Amino acid sequence: MVKCSNCGLEVSDDLENCPNCGSVLKSEETNSSDLNNITKCSNCGNEVSLNDDFCHNCGNKIESDDKSMRCESCGSKLPENTLFCPTCGSKVKIPKRRIQTKICPNCGIQIDNEVEFCPECGTNIATGEVTKFESTPASFSEKINLAKIIKPTIIALIVSIILSLIGLGIGFSWMSFIIAIILSVGFFAGLIDNEANAIVFGLIVGLLLGILEFPLVEFMFGAFVAGFYDGFFGGHMILLIIVGVIIAYVSNMFLKDTIRGIMKNLTGLL
C-alpha cells in the first residue's frame, strides 16, 4: 500500500493513479531525483512537484524561486554557481536577471534601478538635482598648437620686415624694429585662438626680427653703415622678444574682438 501524496488515501501498490483524486502515485522506490523535485505548497502544505505551476489541492501558485535552483532535466537541487548538474550532468540554464530600470528626470535615458546618479548628465535620480562638474582648465602647454601659428607668424614677420625697412628709410634707426614688432605682432596676435599660442607667436616673431636686424640695416645702407650701427647701437634681439611677447599677450587677451572686427571689415571691402 502507498499513500497518495495529494489526498492522503492509501491505495494499492499496483495502481499508478489515485482513484480518489487522480494524482500520480509515488512508490517507495521513487528515485532521489523525484524526491528532490518535491516541495510543499506554501499555502496548504500539500506536497507538489516543482514542475507544477499551481498546487493541485488549493490552487496556490508555486513560487518559481526554488525552480531556478533546480535542474530542469532531473529536478535535483543545484548548488550555487553550478554550471552542470551534479546528478545528471545536464548543463544548467542560468536565468537572466530582470534589471529594473528608471528614467533620468533630466535627460530621459534609461538607467539601472540601483544607480543613484545618471551616468549621462550627473543628475541625482532621487532629488532631480543636476550635479555640476567643473572641468579642469587646460595647462599652458596643452593650449599650444604650432600648426595654428605658422601662418600668422610668417605674415607678421613679412609685415614687420617691411615696416622696419620703411622706418629705417625715414630715419627711425633702431626704433624702427620696435615700432614694427608692436604693429605687426599687436594686430595679428588678436587673430590667434588663445593666449598661449599668441605668446609663442610673439616670441618667434621677435626672435626672427632680432636675427634679421643687422642684415636689414646692411640691405638698406651697406656693410659700412651696418658695422657702424652694430658698434653704436648694438643688437636688440632680447628687447624685441620681450616686446613681442607682451604685445601678443595684451592684444590676444584684451583687443581680440576689436581686431577681428577690423579684419572682418577689411575682408568685406576686399
List keywords for this structure.
single chain; 270 residues; 9 helices; two-stranded antiparallel sheet; mainly alpha
Description:
The protein is mainly alpha-helical and 270 residues long. The longest helix has 20 residues, at 150-169. Among the domains are: 97-133; 141-269, no CATH class. The chain starts with a strand and ends with a helix. The protein contains nine helices and six strands; from the N terminus they run ββαββββαααααααα.
Parts with pLDDT < 50 across at least 5 consecutive residues: 28-33
The assigned structural class equals mainly alpha
Q: Mean pLDDT, as a whole number?
A: 81
- The amount of beta strand, in percent, is 5-15%
| Share in helix | 40-55%
Biggest pleated sheet: 2 strands, antiparallel
Shape: rod-shaped
Rg for CA atoms: 45 Å
SSE ordering: EEHEEEEHHHHHHHH
Layout of strands and helices, then pairs:
Blueprint: E1 2-3, E2 10-11, H1 32-36, E3 38-40, E4 47-49, E5 101-103, E6 110-112, H2 140-143, H3 150-169, H4 175-188, H5 195-211, H6 213-221, H7 223-232, H8 237-254, H9 256-269
Antiparallel strand pairs: 1-2, 3-4, 5-6
Helix pairs in contact: 3-4, 3-5, 4-8, 5-8, 6-7
Summarize the structure.
It contains 9 helices and 6 strands; from the N terminus they run ββαββββαααααααα. It has 270 residues and is mostly helical.
